Amino acid sequence: MSQRLAKEYRSHEKTLASDKSFSHVVDLSPVSDEDLRSWKATIEGPPKTPYEGFEFQLELKIPQRYPLDPPQVSFLPRSTPHCNVDYDTGRICLDILEKDSWSPAWDLLHVTHAIWLLLANPVPDSPLDVDLACILRANDTSAYNGLVRYYLKDESRD
Amino acid sequence: MKPERYYSLQMNIHRKNRLEEQLVSVTDPTDFSRTLLPQMVEFDTLLRCHICKDFIKAPVLTPCGHTFCSLCIREYLNREMKCPLCLVELRESMLRSDFLVSEIVGSFKSIRAELIKFLEPGKCPPLDAGNQQGGCGSPIEIASGDPVEGTDENEQDEDEDDDVRIISMSKWENDDQQARQHLFSSPSARKRQRTDSPVVSTIDNMLVKPKTEAKLADAQCPICQRYFVLDYLQRTHLDECLNGIAGNVGAEEPSGSVATRNPVRQREPATETLSKPQVPKVDSEQFVIRYLESGQNRNFNRLPKLNYSSLSQSQLKQKLLALKLPTSGSRKQMISRYNHYEMLWNSNFLDSLELVDERELRRRLASWESTHNNSGSQTKSIISTMMGGATAKLKDFKNDRFDRKGWMLEHRHEFKELIKEARSKLGKKEEISIYSNHTELSQEKSIEFPQSQGSPSSAQMLPQGSQGQRENN
């Protein structure tokens, strides 16, 4: 299993350096070289969304039985306003991160990419941030975008 | 530089090295991306299991057409009954072993390192003067239909487009082979080969002739490489040939009756020479033969799944004992132990062509258990049996919360015993060294040593030595 993580480390390193289609993933690497069970990732906010121009940090914890079990991924606490993200803890609601939908054929780069897609495509039907989801359900996109923007600017000022 | 800073720097270097060490053995499809043939990345990727990302070991095929390592997919199906790639429902009983993929992977693995070395840009070996293509042309360029110049006599006979392609390939094979020969043999050997060697001519023959032979509606036997009328080949020859090979690997003439109807053209030398430059001959043949014989020697039974809910504790223990597995731990641990052993067993005896014995399986089970099946309580129970109870206190043995002072107080007698024992041992050692330094002080001791050694020479020496000492006294 650590063999698999070592392989991922090598292949992600090369993919990120060469593959332009993953240019929105700024960084994906282990927190320390000692321990491959704890990774960090940085993704750019998707273009044409209120997240554009901001960078988001992810924490990836690899369980003992990875890849049979999915990695545990979260944003940094109080960094990401999104209807599928718990703002205070950074917890992410995404089906492929649950045991039932996870597939061992996916890897950490897939997961990071999926979360980047989630940023651009919020799913208000399974919310972790009810207020933002309510606004989206009312189809008030401009209010949603404005609120997200406000949160983000507020965050970056601190 | 401050000492701490220096120390932390040293630590960093150390860490880096550890990861590097780990990564040295890691192969990756992108190893090919900087070679002359970057397309090999795809090929390499296809031969890997999507669960462990390594080359497929003992491949199994799912009904949905996907291939995984036997052990990987069995482990996954134990928790989720679906294909990891297409998410279609899948059960363990649906898996079928795929020996051909197994041997393709094995064969590729055996030549991979060499292939990468050979395809390294800038390291292109010099081509022969007659076949000069202008420096380091990559094989693809040559094969993709460049006008062929300065070819061998054999090749110039052909003029069709298709053949030009084949020839250019054969030419590449030719160059390729010479290049490899260049790596492996002396220049004189190469020269001999170029002028009039059977090696070159058989390659040319093999790549050029099939056209003429195809006109006679002949087909090549995949086993003995000879040509027969298709009908005959399918009906009788294949069986005969297979039997012949199974009985005697090196059999040159598996079926004598063939010659009466069909002119038999010997093809064996050609295949040999083709495979020779890549790997030692034994290896390249080995994968083919192992594949052909893969149906035999399979007299091991599938280890059945158990219905745990209907098994009592003692019945479960009996099942484990029958397989010579340990019966320690909780019921849950025993169940997961049996489950994992069943997977190891089935993937080894049903799907693998490199069988290992049961002892090796048990060793693998033990190493798996040390990392996966402990869930905290297993290690505890081992320590507790060694220490005789006190499990609750050992819970946080490696944590900061562990009460070290309390532990030391509680076990101070044991610790004292240990220290006493260690001191007495140390004292004995000192005594011995004193004796050996001042031999004249202790005759008895010096006599003891040669006796314990028991070698005849020292025994002979002894009387003289002791005599000498007595004289001294």
TrEMBL record, chain A:
Active-site residues are C93
Pathway per its UniProt entry is: Protein modification
Keyword annotations for this protein, in alphabetical order, are:
ATP-binding, Nucleotide-binding, Transferase, Ubl conjugation pathway
* UBC core domain location: 1-157
Show the ranges annotated as biased composition (Basic and acidic residues): 1-17
Taxonomic superkingdom: Eukaryota
Q: Could you state a single Gene Ontology molecular function term?
A: ATP binding
Matches recorded under Pfam families: UQ_con
Matches recorded under InterPro entries:
Ub_conjugating_enzyme (IPR050113), UBC (IPR000608), UBQ-conjugating_AS (IPR023313), UBQ-conjugating_enzyme/RWD (IPR016135)
Region (Disordered): which ranges? 1-20
The cross-references to Gene3D superfamilies, in alphabetical order and at most eight, read: Ubiquitin Conjugating Enzyme
Q: Which family does it belong to?
A: Belongs to the ubiquitin-conjugating enzyme family.
Q: What is this protein called?
A: LAMI_0H04038g1_1
Query: Species name for this entry?
Result: Lachancea mirantina
Automatic annotation (TrEMBL), chain B:
| One GO term (biological process) | DNA repair
- Function (record text): E3 RING-finger protein, member of the UBC2/RAD6 epistasis group. Associates to the E2 ubiquitin conjugating enzyme UBC2/RAD6 to form the UBC2-RAD18 ubiquitin ligase complex involved in postreplicative repair (PRR) of damaged DNA.
> Sorted alphabetically, which PANTHER family does this protein's record hold?
E3 UBIQUITIN-PROTEIN LIGASE RAD18
Q: What is its EC number?
A: 2.3.2.27
* Catalytically driven reaction(s): S-ubiquitinyl-[E2 ubiquitin-conjugating enzyme]-L-cysteine + [acceptor protein]-L-lysine = [E2 ubiquitin-conjugating enzyme]-L-cysteine + N(6)-ubiquitinyl-[acceptor protein]-L-lysine
Keyword annotations for this protein, in alphabetical order, are: DNA damage, DNA repair, DNA-binding, Metal-binding, Nucleus, Transferase, Ubl conjugation pathway, Zinc, Zinc-finger
| Composition-biased stretches (Acidic residues) | 149-163
Q: Which Pfam families match?
A: SAP (PF02037), zf-C3HC4_2 (PF13923)
What name does UniProt use for this protein? Postreplication repair E3 ubiquitin-protein ligase RAD18
Positions of region (Disordered): 130-163, 176-198, 251-272, 437-473
Q: Where is the UBZ4-type domain?
A: 218-246
Q: What is the lineage of its organism?
A: Eukaryota, Fungi, Dikarya, Ascomycota, Saccharomycotina
Major localization listed first in the record, in broad terms: nucleus
Metabolic or biological pathway: Protein modification; protein ubiquitination
Compartment list: Nucleus
Q: Where is the RING-type domain?
A: 49-86
Q: Where is the composition biased (Polar residues)?
A: 449-473
- Where does the record place the SAP domain? 308-342
Which protein family is it in?
Answer: Belongs to the RAD18 family.
Give the GO cellular component terms, alphabetically: nucleus; Rad6-Rad18 complex
Recorded GO terms, molecular function? single-stranded DNA binding; ubiquitin protein ligase activity; zinc ion binding
Q: How does it assemble?
A: Interacts with E2 UBC2, forming a complex with ubiquitin ligase activity.
- Give the InterPro entries listed for this entry: Rad18, Rad18_fungi, Rad18_UBZ4, SAP_dom, Znf_RING, Znf_RING/FYVE/PHD, Znf_RING_CS
